[in-house]
Amino acid sequence: MHKAPELDHLVFRISEMHPLMASLRALGASIEDSGFDDGWIEAGLYGSTTTRQFLEGNYMKRALTAHSITYSALSDLHMKAFLKSKSGQSNAEYTNVKQASFAMNTICQEGRYSELGTKNKDLLTAMETDGLQEKLELFDKVMESQCPLFKFARDYMKFVMCILMFIRASREGDWNLHLESLKALAKYFFAHDRLNYALGASISSTDVQARDR
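The structure assignment produced for this chain is given below.
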């Protein structure tokens, strides 16, 4: 990076595997002694030794599975709480969202996974049509100000989603998503003292964006 302008045609960027492992370590540190790890043990999903390895960022694939399961469970609870709230019950039946959700559920039950991409786009369109996303954001804003535990759970979910977006960007070769997800992960690297990855992510993102401009 000090060889300009000879290397101006190259983009120096952070790779995928090690930032992912650093993200899992930071995520594990953020939930240690929170009860999530105890939940994995009490649910019979993992033993205490394996759970400790997850918190330390080891067993990458199994740790991702554990966090994905937890994210799904919290998403269900989040949606149930929203639908019971005044924000979720006001001025809408969410007809389009229900139809799109049933359609996605049907193709999953029938194993037609090749259609998931299209049905997912239909669901996102339905959420915009029914105004669901805006109401969810308002619900989160109100609840986070009133309930610290709710905010903690939502912050965890956002962290997991950043990691999943980073993985998706690598698998699909989506350069813009790679940069955006890496930028989102950088704040977690700073917060949890993963400074080498924080600086690498920051340099990669700002360098590419500067060249794009």
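Interim note for the steering committee: The two ends are 19 Å apart (CA to CA). Residues 17-88+148-212 form one domain.
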